């Protein structure tokens, strides 16, 4: 950060020199978070404003997130920095992005748009400038907002800040492409350890899962979620619903293995009064309940054959016929299905309809087992521990290196569900401030055999835990981490890349 950030720039030559200096400085930055933060500082200095904010638009999900803020003495609130903070509905920002227009006003109350989402300060924001930032192919990729508590003219900064901001969003896009390349050190989007869809983990397997979600989230395709028990199929289904155009409507879940055939049919399709003994009133089924929204059919492999034919009609015709009804009616429901069973084998055996399988598997997503998600176990464990502590009303707990190492060596046949239950039990058992191996109650019979690991693999496992803990302690600052460990920064970066430690592992707690 520049010394004396708000130093006056008395003449155009000084302004041009400062602008060129920022171009040069931002052009060599290789960390996304630092790049976004330095740009917000640059915008504050060049415009002479106390506040500057950089918003980035996710083209895949349509989310508008606050990537960086510069306001001396004011920290970014946790609720604003969380993945739940989506600013796309703020009218001021919405106007700038959708109309691709600059918004500039001076004087309190001179804007027709609500500015309540801006940080609260002692005096009102008197001047405001908001401009769209264009990325590749002149596509609106974000917005820059500058505000001052003084009455000042900001329109003269539009061209220079627009060029600098466009340069930065292109640099950010290039860094994302670089980190996604094989062997590249990953960086986090949104909250550390959390993807754009609120899923915990930055492993290659989860990156691929999120890529597939991004492909289908805005489409009407039927999605078949496959994976072992406990891999989080319902969590992914909720993420697809929440990020899609039906997010304001109902999300309904039905476990097809939870009811016998007769009850499952009435539960899904509903019935009319008098359809059977005990039907004393009309009953709306889950298809009607989910009208306009999403219906997840969990354990679809356990659905009886007779109901499979009726489900196929819903998928093909978009209509249902309740029990006892004389006519069918239309429903608008997006259907997601989930199973841990091998449906292709069931088709070959004749226990699952082939035509329904191909209709359900219009867009299949295979969820990885936890043992295939390298590095995600520690993120998930910390996430579950924090949630358990919050529920119990106790302060967050720390983790011993031995406990983390023991968890990273476990095979987790029960996947994420097993890990969650294990961590919640450990939180209850822990009477001090640090979770120890004894609290995990791991059975040696369930642990992954470590005798097959070479000395180098064991050393790397320990080194990984030490690096992640030290980075977390320093809130992801690699310079301070390298200094504490007695390493050159270049050496630390090499070790992070060599051990494939994603940035999501190291930027604070999940």
At CATH level 3, the topology of the largest domain is: Beta-Lactamase
Quickly give the CATH architecture of the largest domain: 2-Layer Sandwich
CATH homology superfamily of the largest domain: GAF domain
- Total strands: the figure is 16
Overall geometry comes to globular
Intertermini distance: 27 Å
Mean pLDDT: 81
Sheet-strand content, in percent, reads 5-15%
- Unreliable stretches covering 5 or more consecutive residues: 1-10, 77-84, 181-193, 444-452, 504-510
- Helix proportion range: 40-55%
Description:
This protein is α/β, with parallel strands linked by helices. It folds into 3 domains: 12-180, Beta-Lactamase (2-Layer Sandwich), CATH 3.30.450; 215-367, Rossmann fold; 371-505, Helicase, Ruva Protein, domain 3, CATH 1.10.8. 42% of the residues lie in helices and 14% in strands. The chain has 19 helices and 16 strands. The chain has helices at 12-27, 32-47, 78-81, 91-99, 158-180, 204-216, 233-243, 261-269, 286-289, 305-317, 343-349, 354-360, 376-392, 401-408, 415-429, 437-440, 455-473, 478-485, 489-498, and strands at residues 51-57, 64-70, 103-106, 127-134, 140-148, 223-226, 251-255, 270-271, 283-284, 294-298, 319-320, 329-330, 334-339, 363-366, 398-399, 434-435. The strands form 5 sheets. A 5-stranded antiparallel beta sheet has the order 2-1-5-4-3, with helices on both faces. It has a 5-stranded parallel beta sheet with strand order 7-10-13-6-14. Strands 8-9 form a two-stranded antiparallel ribbon. Strand 1 and strand 2 form a beta hairpin.
